[in-house]
Amino acid sequence: MSQDKIINEVLDELEKNGHKLSRREAMKLIAISPLAAGVLSNAAAPVSAQAASSATGRIVIVGGGLSGVATAAKLCKRLRSPDITVIEPNPISVSYQAGQTLIAAGVYKKEDIIYQTSDFMPKEVNWIQKAAKNFDPENNKVILEDGTEVGYDYLVVAMGVTLNYGAIKGLEGEITTLGNCDEVRKKVGKNGVYSLYFAEGSVDTYDGIQEIIKKAKNLKGNEKLQLIFTDSPTAVKCGGAPKKVMYIANDLIKKAGVRDKVEILFYTNSDKLFGVPEYAKAIEEQFSKRDFKWEFKTRLVAVDTQNQVATFEKTWVEKGEWDKDLEEYEMITKKETFEKKFDFLHVVPPQKAPDAVGKSPLGSPASWVPANKETLQHTAYPNVFAIGDCAAVPLGKTGGSSRKQYHVLVDNLIAVMEKKDKLPAKYDGYTVCPFITSIGTVMFAEFDWSGKPAPSFPLDPTKERWSMWLLKVYMMKPIIFHGMLPGRI
C-alpha cells in the first residue's frame, strides 16, 4: 500500500469516529511516532534486494496469524529462492485481536477486526489450509489432522495460544480467539459472566456492561452492584487486557451517571499491578483515583454461573520455625478460599500453547514451546524457531513483541541456513501495552527486559494521553496490516 493510501485510511477512520483532522494535523501526530513514521517511509521506499540470501531449504511455518504471515513475507524478501509452506486452517487467522478491547468499549464492531488471510498471504508461499496435529522433530516432520506428513528442513512455530476456560471449575471449553466458541458460550456471555479474550466474547462484554448500567439505574438507596475483574495464574497474551476492560467498564458506567452504584474490584495472582515499577506506580494512582479495590496473590478457581458466585484462592507466606543450621525461618505458603457474589465477572482464561505442539516433543512441561529468549531458536532443535504467543519467552505475548521478534527470527533462521557459527540477532524483550484508561485516553506502556520503560516517543510514558488514544484506535491497525504483515517494519 502506498504512503498516501495509508494516510487516507487513517484519516477516514478518524472522521468516521467523529475526529476530523486535516492531513497536516495527521502528519504531525504521525511524526511523533517513530513506529508510524517507519511504516510511511517503508511504504514509500522500493523493496531492496540487496540483503537477499542464496541459502536454500524447505521452510515450514505452522501458524498463519500476524507472526507467521509477517515471518513468511520477510523471508520471501530476504531469500532469492524461497521455499516456504504455511500451515494454517483458519481463513481469518490474521484478524486484529488487539481490537477486541475496543469492541468491548463500543468503539469497534466485530467486523472491524476481521480480515481474510488470503489477502495478506505472500503469493510465493504454499498455503496448506489444514491444522497441525503433532510434530516429529527427530525426523523433521509435521503431522496434519488428516494424517498427512509435511517434511521440512527448517521449522517456525507460530501457533498462538488456546484459551482454557475449562480449567476454571464451573466453566467449559478450550478455544482460540477466532473460531467455534459454542462450548465456552454455554457459560460465558450470560448470567453476568463475560470475557473479551475471544471475538464473540468481546461483543458480549460490551452488552454485559450495558446491562449493568441498566440495572444500576434501577437501584434504590445505598445498594451497589459488584463488578469483579480477574487475572490468570498463567502467562497470557496481552497482559494488560484484564485491566483495560476494567477501565473501559468504569468509564462507560461513569458517563452513564451511575458510577456511585457499582463497586469495582480487581483480583490478580501477581504480587504487583505491573512488572515495571514506573508503570505499576502510575496504575496504582489511576486505580486509587477511580476508586478501584484490588487484591494480590488471589486467583479465580471456580464460578457458579447460576447463582453468580465466584470462588477465589488467596495465597500468602508466613514464618515457620527457626532453622538453627541455616539461621533463618522456614517460610510456609498458606492458602485459603473464599466466595464472592457478583453482578458482573470478567474472566481471564488460563492459557497455553495448542496441545498439538505443547504436548509434542517440541513442547515443554508447561505446554509452551521452549526457545532461547534472545535468538528465538528452540532449546533442543537448532533448525526450529518459535515466535509470538506460543513461545516460552518472557514478555513476548503482544503484537508489539511479535513485531520485533519476527525480524530477529528471520535474521537468525537465515544464518542457520547459511551454516554460520553465530546467530546475529537478539530480541531485547521489547513489548508494548497501550493501556486504555478511558474512552479517549491511553497510557502507552513500552518496556523491555531491563525492567524499565523503553518509550519510542519523546513523551512521559506514564501519562494518560488523547494522542496515544488516536495512535491506538486509528493508527495501530494500519501499521500492523500495511507495515508488519508485508514484512516491512
From TrEMBL:
What the entry lists under InterPro entries is as follows:
FAD/NAD-bd_sf, FAD/NAD-binding_dom, Sulphide_quinone_reductase, TAT_signal
Q: Which residues form the FAD/NAD(P)-binding domain?
A: 58-187
GO BP term, pick one: sulfide oxidation, using sulfide:quinone oxidoreductase
Q: Which GO terms describe its molecular function?
A: FAD binding; sulfide:quinone oxidoreductase activity
| Gene3D superfamilies referenced in this protein's UniProt entry, alphabetically | 3.50.50.100
Q: Name one Pfam family in it.
A: Pyr_redox_2
- Protein name (database record): NAD(P)/FAD-dependent oxidoreductase
Q: What does UniProt list as this organism's lineage?
A: Bacteria, Pseudomonadati, Campylobacterota, Epsilonproteobacteria, Campylobacterales
